[in-house]
């Protein structure tokens, strides 16, 4: 296409838009849009009802209820008004619109956070999780919805139907309810994700409606007050665009990194586990946990994959991803040979059925040992950084459940909530009813010293896990117990290591005399939660 043809098409488009803009009643639309920012008790009642309906729909995982909240929400009015205010440079209208939006957002967050705090339903549902990670596609949806809404408002073509569709597509209230839910339940990152989705929709609608209003002939001359300068308006738009682009670009980069990581994991797993009729990868998941990447893979196999082979796969994953990887392989024994089409057994004349092969003692021991190791790893991850050892399983032949016993190395017992949480974790993992019994043993039964009087390598390695305490060291007390006759220099060495090497708060560290009934000559260290009885 040459320049003359391009100029001709641009002229025809300009003439067409000029004809259409003459049909737009600019002053009437400005009055209609300006009325959308009027705050009244009806507006706030509708807003609160919409936010509560959205929250209940999210908590009960009901799509229909969430859609109903989208249709009730009155928040689209102030958002469209702010877009028009930027177009015509009407500062009073912009101020009123943004004030209404700010008050609406704060009120919605407070109400939904309070209801979430009081609600017995606190687990995130699929509807909640779908609104905590906005990406570039959510921005595109909001941009297109803003264009459609502004065009429908200017032309009055099917406005009521179009406005309903725009409200459903952009959905500004459910993300705000997710943000309030995150605040009320203490899941701050989840709440931030919901607020980012709302902010993305809000900015995209404002800017695209601003563009549509400009194309439809709205200018600063239509403002009833002294118009805001064009330069100031462009600065506001550029600043908002920059503000929203930072988290969206970050999300895009993270998503691309996740896709790349997923492909690398899949490539390594398929390379090692897809072995013709011997084994086949059926699925995998991965998630970061305490500085390591936890990879779970399920595989159909005709024989159990040995531990050393699993470790080789784990090492290859770590080398490929350039980070430590823990591999959990869930193996399902299957038969690889196909049955004859006639249905007759090739092993027994006349098509009889062979008796099932019983597992050998070695195979049964390996299978139970694998389940026990899997259970111990689940418990260790849930109780981290405190080690879990000696995990044993006793299967109930009549009830179909399993009794799990283990030893937890820490200085305070499990709370009732922890007991329930660990039991549910094992039941989900083992897919069996679980009776859990965890005994507690001291984390540091004895502090050992080297020949030069410093702490031994074994002790310093054990003490390093104090850097990984859940919630940080501020929530714990550290009690150094020294038996009678202990040299003061040894006590000072322990205290110095805790304060200077591990940077534990000095106010949380206490040195006391060990009870005589303990019957040991070694210094011990006890780690208790604040408020926990010694």
Record keyword descriptors for this entry.
GMP Synthetase, Chain A, domain 3, 60s Ribosomal Protein L30, Chain: A, alpha/beta, 4-stranded mixed β-sheet, 534 residues
Task: Give an overview of the whole structure.
Among the domains are: 26-119 and 128-228, no CATH class; 362-441, GMP Synthetase, Chain A, domain 3, CATH 3.30.300; 444-529, OmpA-like domain (60s Ribosomal Protein L30, Chain: A, 2-Layer Sandwich). The protein contains 17 helices and ten strands. It is elongated and about 95 Å long. Strands 7-10-8-9 form a four-stranded mixed β-sheet, with helices on one face. It has a three-stranded mixed β-sheet with strand order 1-2-3, covered by helices on one side. The longest helix is centred in the middle third of the chain and has 44 residues, at 230-273. The chain is an alpha/beta fold and 534 residues long. Residues 338-364 have low confidence and may be disordered.
CA gyration radius, whole angstroms: 32 Å
Spell out the helices and strands N to C: HHHHHHHHHHHHEEHEHEEHEEHEHEE
Strand order of the largest sheet: 7-10-8-9
SS class: alpha/beta
**What is the global morphology?**
elongated
Number of helices: 17
Low-pLDDT runs of 5+ residues are: 338-364
């Amino acid at each position: 296409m040459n320049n003359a043809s391009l100029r001709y098409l641009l002229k025809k488009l300009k003439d067409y838009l000029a004809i259409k803009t003459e049909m737009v009643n600019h002053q009437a639309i400005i009055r209609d849009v300006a009325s959308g920012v009027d705050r009244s008790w009806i507006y706030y009642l509708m807003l609160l009802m919409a936010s509560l309906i959205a929250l209940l729909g999210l908590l009960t995982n009901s799509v229909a209820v969430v859609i109903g909240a989208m249709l009730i929400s009155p928040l689209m009015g102030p958002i469209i008004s702010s877009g028009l205010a930027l177009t015509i440079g009407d500062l009073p209208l912009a101020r009123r619109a943004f004030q209404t939006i700010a008050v609406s957002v704060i009120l919605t967050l407070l109400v939904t956070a309070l209801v979430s705090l009081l609600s017995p339903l606190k687990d995130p549902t699929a509807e909640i999780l779908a609104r905590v990670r906005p990406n570039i596609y959510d921005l595109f949806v909001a941009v297109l919805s803003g264009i459609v809404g502004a065009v429908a408002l200017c032309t009055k073509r099917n406005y009521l139907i179009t406005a309903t569709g725009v409200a459903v597509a952009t959905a500004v209230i459910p993300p705000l309810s997710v943000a309030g839910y995150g605040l009320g339940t203490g899941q701050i990152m989840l709440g931030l994700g919901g607020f980012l989705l709302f902010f993305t929709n809000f900015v995209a609608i404002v800017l695209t409606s601003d563009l549509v209003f400009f194309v439809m002939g709205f200018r600063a001359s239509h403002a009833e007050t002294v118009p805001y300068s064009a330069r100031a308006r462009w600065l506001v738009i550029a600043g908002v665009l920059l503000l929203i682009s930072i988290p969206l670009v970050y999300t895009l980069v993270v998503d691309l990194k996740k896709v790349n990581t997923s492909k690398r994991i899949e490539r390594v797993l398929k390379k090692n586990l897809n072995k013709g009729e011997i084994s086949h990868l059926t699925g995998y998941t991965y998630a970061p946990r305490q500085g390591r990447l936890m990879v779970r893979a399920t595989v159909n196999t005709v024989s159990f994959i040995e531990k050393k082979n699993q470790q080789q796969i784990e090492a290859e994953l770590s080398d490929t991803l350039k980070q430590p990887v823990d591999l959990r392989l869930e193996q399902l024994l299957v038969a690889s040979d196909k049955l004859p089409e006639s249905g007759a057994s090739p092993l027994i004349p006349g098509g009889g059925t062979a008796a099932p092969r019983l597992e050998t003692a070695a195979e049964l021991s390996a299978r139970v040992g694998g389940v026990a190791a899997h259970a111990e790893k689940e418990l260790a991850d849930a109780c981290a950084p405190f080690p879990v050892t000696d995990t044993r399983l006793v299967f109930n032949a009549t009830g179909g459940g399993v009794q799990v016993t283990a030893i937890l190395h820490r200085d305070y017992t499990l709370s009732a909530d922890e007991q329930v949480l660990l039991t549910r974790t094992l039941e989900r993992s083992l897919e069996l009813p679980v009776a859990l019994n965890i005994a507690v043993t001291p984390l540091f039964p004895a502090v050992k010293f080297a020949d030069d009087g410093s702490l031994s390598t074994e002790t310093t390695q054990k003490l390093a896990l104090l850097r990984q305490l859940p919630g940080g060291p501020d929530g714990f007390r550290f009690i150094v117990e020294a038996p009678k006759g202990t040299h003061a220099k040894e006590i000072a060495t322990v205290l110095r290591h805790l304060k200077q090497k591990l940077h534990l708060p000095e106010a949380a560290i206490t040195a006391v005399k060990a009870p005589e009934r303990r019957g040991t000559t070694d210094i011990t260290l006890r780690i208790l939660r604040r408020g926990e009885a010694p």
